[in-house]
Amino acid sequence: MEGRGGSAIPGAEESHFERDFLSSHNVYRKRHGAAPLQFNRDLCQSAQQWADHLLSIRTLKHSSTEHGENLYYKYSSNEPVDSWYNEINNYDFARPGFRSDTGHFTQVVWKDSKEVGVGVATDGNGLFFVVGQYNPAGNITNHGYFDKNVLPAGAAAFAYNQTDNITDQITTQDLQTMENGGRRKQG
């Protein structure tokens, strides 16, 4: 069994998978008025360790981390985030709150989360486990937290500081490409 390799080492350059993973999150977050996430190497290392563990037990199971966490098995850099985001179809914005069939979506767009890390583990035979960890954690069930952190698409698409360099990298074209089910070309 092998992990994703050296890209989880603090200070290492982001891999193509990590760039796509972060970009997919930030496209969806922008749609819901949440500021872009920043990549966190410590979260990557923690997520990688848990992904390696999941591969060793071949079971999806949340860790005991204090951070928010999404789990997925299969592989492509956008696929896990797209799958998590698609839980929006089950979310009732008129009655905000936690539900087990929307918790991945709400973590992806949770406004107060500022950082994300990702870990990927594979057995080399097509089995992949993906772990996304978030800081601070989302899905806080205190009164009013979902109202404040999970906004409908377009409700406040630019509610955060537009002078942020990362914000400028996510364009309207990116949003349209994601809405059309397509992928941006790398280049």
Automatic annotation (TrEMBL):
It holds the Pfam family CAP. Coiled coil: none annotated. This is SCP domain-containing protein. InterPro entries: Allrgn_V5/Tpx1_CS, CAP_dom, CAP_sf, CRISP-related, SCP_GAPR1-like. One of its GO terms (cellular component) is extracellular region. SUPFAM superfamilies: PR-1-like (SSF55797). Gene3D superfamilies: CAP (3.40.33.10). It comes from the Eukaryota. PANTHER family: CYSTEINE-RICH SECRETORY PROTEIN-RELATED (PTHR10334). Residues 16-142 form the SCP domain. It comes from Leptobrachium leishanense (Leishan spiny toad).
